[in-house]
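Exercise 7. Predict the joint structure of the components listed below.
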Amino acid sequence: MAIERAAVIGAGVMGAGIAAHLANAGIPVDLLDIVPTGADQRSTIAERALANLKKAKPAAFMQRRAARLVTPGNVEDDLGRLAEADWIIEAVIENLEIKRDLYARIETVRKPGSIVSSNTSTIPLAALVDGLPERFAGDFLITHFFNPPRYMRLFELVGGAATRPEALAEIRDFADRRLGKGVVACNDTPGFIGNRIGIYWLQCAVSEALEAGISVEEADAALGRPAGIPKTGVFGLIDLVGLDLMPHVLASMEQRLAPDDPFHEMFTVPERIEKMIADGYTGRKGKGGFYRLNTAGGRRVKEVIDLATGDYGPVRRPRPASVAAAKRGGLRALVEHDDPVGRYAWRVLARTLSYAASLVPEIADDIVAVDEAMRLGYNWGKGPFELIDRLGTGWFAERLAADGLPVPALLETAAGRPFYRVEQGRLEFLGIDGNYRAVERPEGVMLLADIKRLGEPLARNGSASLWDIGDGVLCVEFHTKMNAMDPDILALLRTALGTLGNEYRALVLYNEGEQFSAGANLGLVMFAANIAAWDQVEAMVKEGQETYLALKRAPFPVVGAPSGLALGGGCEVLLHCDAIQAHAESYVGLVEVGVGVIPAWGGSKEMLLRWQREKRRPGGPMPPVAQAFETISLAKVATSAAEARDLKFLGADDGISMNRDRLLADAKARALALADGYVPPEPATLTLPGPSAKAALDMAVHGFRLQGKATAHDVVVGGVLANVLSGGDTDVTEELDEEALLALERAGFMRLVRDSATQARIEHMLETGKPLRN
Amino acid sequence: MASYNTPLRDMRFVYHELHDLDALAELPGYEEATPDIVDAVLEEAGRFCSEVLAPLNRTGDEEGCRLEDGVVRTPEGFVDAYAQFVDSGWNTLSAAPAYGGQGLPHALDLMVQEMISSANMAFGMYPGLTEGAVNALEAHGSEALRATYVEPLVQGRWAGTMCLTEPQAGTDLGLLRTRAQPRDDGSYAIDGTKIFISAGDHDLTENIVHLVLARLPDAPHGSKGISMFVVPKFLPGTDGGLGEPNAVSVGSLEHKMGIRASATCVLNFDDATGWLVGEPHGGLRGMFTMMNAARIFVGVQGLGLAETAYQNAATYAGERLQGRSLKGAAAPDQAADPLTVHPDVRRMLLTMRAYVEGGRALGAWVSSALDTGNKHPDEAHRAEAGDFVALMTPIVKALLTDLSSEVTNLGVQVYGGHGYIREHGMEQLVRDARITQIYEGANGIQALDLVGRKLPAHFGRHLRTFFHPVQTYIEAHADDQAMAPYVGPLAKAFGRLQRATMWVAARGLADPEEAAAAASDYLRLFGLVALAYLWARSAEVALGQLDGDERDFYQAKLDTASFYMLRLLPQSGALFSTMMSGAAPVMRFDASQF
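Solution:
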């Protein structure tokens, strides 16, 4: 049965977030909760949850419209609605009796073949279905989301002995393709994979820090950058998760884990934490947690708790010698270092990694699932087995033994061999039987990382590489810092165009960085501006225009495949593609005005053309100009691919991939579909209104200025943008070609970049990462 | 013996006409620096230098310093000259009035320093080092240290030194070994040997205050483990007088190529008493406070020597009769024509002149930014001036001292054999100038400072303070026909500098060795473009004054500017090509074959 409608019961943070994300996938969903005693508004809990979802930061919905798909209700009056649902998700409190009562009620109304799942984080499936009807057990499984459901990619899937294989396959496929999740099959054990290891690790990091007198900053400095678990540091993560959640999860785990499980050493909630929770320091949602923002005296000072005294003080930046050593010598240098922080890092890693290693095959069939779960669910840079490989399995086992710690059987099996190896360009992992097998990707998943293991790029420079991704399709990968566009990337794009023809018939722009491209390399522009090398700045602008125009007019299809940020120059390159296949989590915008310039690599022109192509718009030359002006002058950034479509960064025909891992395959398929009989677009012409339109736009900007919504330099930048978009000195009797628009963009950019107020904006952005409002 | 006539006309030109430094009098604290006062100071200082200091230059060089019973004796006449120097207040021109200084701009003080260096560079070493010590103590010393030391130093009763170098630690101060052990009373016991200590001991002042870099017991390795200490020759007494001698002794005097009247000592610290200046392990900051001012001073020393070489060579060439003009006899009634008829002699004289006058304009530009950076009421102006000084300090130091070496050598060349013998003092200028390329950070280190620190900092923010005014100037004069002969070559060379700068930034980021291999050529290219800008502006001033009373002076400016643009600035092309060849020609050579 295809999933076309869903219901979520339990409108807490998780349930509501899951409902929102189902809506993001276009699925109508009922969100039900109990009727509070004595409430007039019987669905008030779900209604308030929906209202909060709309305000959530980061946003729970990918676009406003999606909220309309969520219908609030209550489990007394609206239980009958469950009969419509193909998938019913239970996300109520972690109480076995309450859950089982609810299942009994669900069973009375749900339609045959519908699937029921629990979002429990700790309770095994066997306990949940024990004694329930066979039909229910056959349709029941555990689907464990992580918070926040839209953003955390881990999706733990647990089937029971009675669960129908088709039901498991249905949910696996839906979660993967429609919800974009990384589905990890778990065995039916308490806490599954993520929380079993993750909570153990958090407890371990806190209690070891308390014991060794390690400060919060030192712990984060050691476990953050060098170990990458997580990149943000461990205490910041607990603040995000919520300190008060930990005792609940711990209690539930304590109840269910085998008595000899090492986890039992971890169950005591430290006094310091208990006191913090009692005082309302429950994390970001409360007054703060280990870190807090002190806004007293009108200044925002980030403070941190002294674990020994409980007092808060300004955050310091410790530089332990062990962390410095790790910069050069890697993770092993960190844990081998004999300073307090190095010893601390070793204790935490030794206990956490060996615990993780001891849990396979109990919690999962293989190490790949465990690593994937910790990366996707707890933001670890590398999973536990990947980390042990960095230390060396042999070294790690010896050191454990030397410290009198138990050496897990799997490490004995490895016998000094790595958990992962590359054989003939293929990634392999060590099975529990001691044999290596290939890491399999699901059908339709294509990773550039895998392709890169197979061989060398066709071309490469310091900023980008050109890969053959099969079937005559090329891929340009950016690899600068934040994937900022620079002359080397432009050069490689031209190389790619030169390589097309004969064997190769389509090009995909894709990379596996966190950001597709955060914009042009401002540092380079700033440097050139600082030495007044205006001819070189202009040459860079021209080079970008020519390269992007060449992409557009090439006799081959070019598909842009963004994920993460695609801003400024990184957005402009997409606007020149024949098609875009965007990851749902793409944040797209022309933000140039924030640094006092305008889109000048053809972006202003392309936005005009996009609005001009729009069928449902008022007639005349003015509306596209006004729309493009609004989008660019307000530096609107789409916070999802869906929103990018509303803002016209994506066209109606452009595709969205919910799953990051499927983006490349989807983009490649699109490129191949376009390649047959491909005809490049005709050079476009524009009829623009000229000075009268500029005058109208200028007046609007002055209005904002008077209201205090625009700054003095906003007026200058707005004026230049208005001049470009309205076509300069043209009038409606004249047709302008693309080159004419590019010349206007270039002149406008050069006018602005020479302005000291623009230079101040660029400098401020580079120095502080924040825009300057001058 | 070389004589010295203060180039007052050119100094006034630079101060009043080219840079309009009279505007400095508008900064709070510099109200005294009116045009009248400035001219009076220049004139009097010039008189003192030519009448008192210059006559001691040759004798000081011949006689040198002597170590007698552990005490250094300066050459005959130095003690008396120093007393006069202090009495006249030449050491306190730019010092703060609170300590008895006169509160005049550094721009003016550095012109006086140029005169002193022209007349007698070795003499100038003694008060010159004191100023660096004052700067470091003022910036980093505790209140108690400042109260004890600054006033007697400013007033010239005491003198200062900078004790950095050790036998094994020259440019690489990370190798320092001198130790500082805390004592119970808050002082430190200093142990170690310092070499090359200028003015390390002498008989000019009653006390000498050594600023010593040393390591505390818990110091980290390398240059981050260096602390600064003040170690006086005589411990301060209770009533402002002198107490016991400290355990600092002169091991020996170095025998040097030049500045032989300057006492360069080996100093032994043997359980000597010192006090910490600034933070523990923060000595490098204190050292840079001394160094930055000192580096500009060294550039000006080079300029001073070059000036003396030029004016003596010019006079000599006008008087010395040898050969005939190739166009026929210019002075048929004499046995031969003066040297100035010969193209190659003129080439040498004009090269000397163009570098000296251009260098003077550069020194004043940068030193006036020191004043703006110190005194301007607006923070943004102070910060910008600070950026400019930081950027230009290595250029002033290295360019002016490299040019000084070239100019003083040309001075010998114009004199021929008479330059090579000691009698005329021209060879002394070459010897004296040579050290300026070495001390206060060898010129190669200056170039690395420029490309490694100043250029990449804040995405090139320091560069803006130079490139933007020059670019604006070029654009403003793009259609000015009269200025075309000056602005045209400037624009061409400036374009090379821009491209070279982008190249260094991009290459240097990828491979620091590329930037390092290009550094010295890049610095010289930068410096020559800076001189070109100042020569263009000088020409602009001169063009406006050709109808006045001083036509000859301004015409000479124009002709020198023209010579610079056509005969010296074209080096920029060769420098550009040289550095663009990259590091490979320098680095691929097998070191075992050296």
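Discussion. The two ends of chain A are 58 Å apart (CA to CA).
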